[in-house]
C-alpha cells in the first residue's frame, strides 16, 4: 500500500467530512421558522420576544451566516459541538458516553452476521441447487422482507417473555456484571445481524459462484489441487472483494437502523439522546449526533478501501 495512495484517500475523506458538516449547517438554516422561537414554544404558549432574542444571542443566531459558519467550523476543529439546550450538558461528552454502546452493538451484530452469512454463502455456492441452498435462499428472502423492529419485537415476545430464556432489554455496564451485560447485548445484536447476514449470504454465494466459473479455477482443479485448497486460495480470495464492499455499505446503514433496535431493547446508545433532541428541538445535540454518524460512515468507507487494497493491490492503480 503506497503512501501516496493512502494520502489521497485520507485527503478525500477529510474533504467529504467538511462537505457533510457544511450540508448539516446549511440544512439547519433552511428549516422554516426561527429555531429559538420553535424551541421556546414547545409548551404551546407564545414566547416573549425578549426571551426569544436572548436565546438567539446565546445560540449565536443573531450573527451573519458566514460568521456563524466560521464559529461552527472552529468549534468542530476544537472538538466542541456545543451544549445541549435541554440538559445544559456538553454535546461531545454525551456522545462520548453513548457512542461506545452503539458501536458495541453494531460490531457484535456485524460479527454474528459474518459468522453466519459468509460460511453459509460459500457452502450454498459449492452445493448449488442442493437442499441447503434452497432452504437458505428462502430464509434469507424472508429475513430481508421483515423489518428489523418487527424482528426485535418478536425476539422479545418469544425468547424473553414467553420462554424467558433471555432478558427483554436494558443495560448493565460490562465492568459491573459481564455475564448480564452480554445477555442484554445478545437479542439486539441478533436483531441487527438478521438483515446483514442475509445480504452477506446472497453476495457471498453469488461471488463464489462467479469465481468458480473462471478458467483459473478449472486450471487449478486440473493440476490436481485439493478442493479445499482451490476454494481457499483461488476462489475465496477473488470472491471477497464484493463481499467487503457490501459489508462496508451495510455497516453504514446499520448506523441508522440501530436507532430502532436500541429503542425496542432499551439499549442506551445514541438513539436515546437523538430522539429526545428531535422531540425537544435541541438542535446542537441533533447536529452533533448526525455529524458523528456521518463521520463514522466515512471512516467505514475508508476502512473498506484499505481492505480492498490489502486484498487486491490493483485497486491502488484504478
Please describe what this structure looks like.
By secondary structure, the protein is mainly alpha-helical. It folds into 2 domains: 3-78, no CATH class; 94-312, MetI-like fold. The chain has helices spanning 3-30, 35-40, 49-59, 65-78, 91-126, 131-145, 148-162, 178-212, 215-222, 227-264, 271-280, 283-311. Helix 5 packs across helix 8 (178-212).
Decide which structural class fits the backbone: mainly alpha
Give the overall silhouette.
globular
Low-pLDDT residue spans: none
SS elements, strand count? 0
**Kindly, what is the distance between the CA atoms of the first and last residues, rounded to a whole number of angstroms?**
13 Å
CATH top level assignment of the largest domain: Mainly Alpha
Key words describing this protein structure:
318 residues, mainly alpha, 77% helix, globular, 0% strand, 2 domains, MetI-like fold
How would you concisely characterize the structure shown here?
The chain is mostly helical.
Write the layout of secondary structure elements.
Elements: H1 3-30, H2 35-40, H3 49-59, H4 65-78, H5 91-126, H6 131-145, H7 148-162, H8 178-212, H9 215-222, H10 227-264, H11 271-280, H12 283-311
Amino acid at each position: 500500500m503506497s503512501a501516496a495512495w493512502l494520502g489521497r484517500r485520507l485527503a478525500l475523506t477529510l474533504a467529504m467530512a467538511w462537505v457533510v458538516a457544511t450540508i448539516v449547517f446549511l440544512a439547519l438554516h433552511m428549516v422554516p421558522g426561527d429555531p429559538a422561537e420553535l424551541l421556546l414554544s414547545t409548551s404551546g404558549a407564545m414566547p416573549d420576544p425578549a426571551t426569544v432574542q436572548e436565546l438567539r444571542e446565546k445560540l449565536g443566531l443573531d450573527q451573519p451566516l458566514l460568521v456563524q459558519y466560521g464559529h461552527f467550523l472552529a468549534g468542530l476543529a476544537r472538538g466542541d459541538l456545543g451544549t445541549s439546550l435541554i440538559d445544559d450538558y456538553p454535546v461531545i461528552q454525551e456522545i462520548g458516553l453513548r457512542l461506545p454502546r452503539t458501536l458495541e452493538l453494531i460490531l457484535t451484530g456485524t460479527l454474528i452476521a459474518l459468522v453466519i452469512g459468509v460460511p453459509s454463502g460459500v457452502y450454498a455456492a459449492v452445493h448449488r441447487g442442493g437442499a441447503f441452498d434452497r432452504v437458505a435462499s428462502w430464509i434469507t428472502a424472508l429475513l430481508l422482507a421483515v423489518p428489523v423492529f418487527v424482528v426485535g419485537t418478536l425476539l422479545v415476545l418469544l425468547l424473553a417473555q414467553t420462554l424467558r430464556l433471555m432478558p427483554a432489554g436494558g443495560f448493565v455496564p460490562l465492568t459491573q456484571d459481564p455475564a448480564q451485560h452480554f445477555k442484554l447485548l445478545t437479542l439486539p445484536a441478533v436483531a441487527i445481524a438478521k438483515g446483514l447476514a442475509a445480504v452477506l449470504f446472497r453476495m457471498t454465494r453469488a461471488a463464489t459462484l462467479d469465481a468458480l466459473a473462471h478458467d483459473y479455477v478449472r486450471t487449478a482443479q486440473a493440476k490436481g489441487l485439493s478442493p479445499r485448497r482451490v476454494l481457499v486460495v483461488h476462489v475465496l480470495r477473488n470472491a471477497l472483494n464484493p463481499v467487503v464492499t457490501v459489508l462496508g455499505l451495510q455497516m453504514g446503514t446499520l448506523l441508522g437502523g440501530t436507532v430502532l433496535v436500541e429503542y425496542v431493547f432499551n439499549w442506551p446508545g445514541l438513539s436515546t439522546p437523538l430522539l429526545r433532541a428531535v422531540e425537544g428541538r435541541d438542535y446542537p445535540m441533533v447536529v452533533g449526533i448526525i455529524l458523528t454518524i456521518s463521520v463514522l460512515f466515512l471512516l467505514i468507507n475508508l476502512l473498506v478501501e484499505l481492505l480492498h487494497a490489502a486484498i487486491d493491490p490493483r485497486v491502488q492503480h484504478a
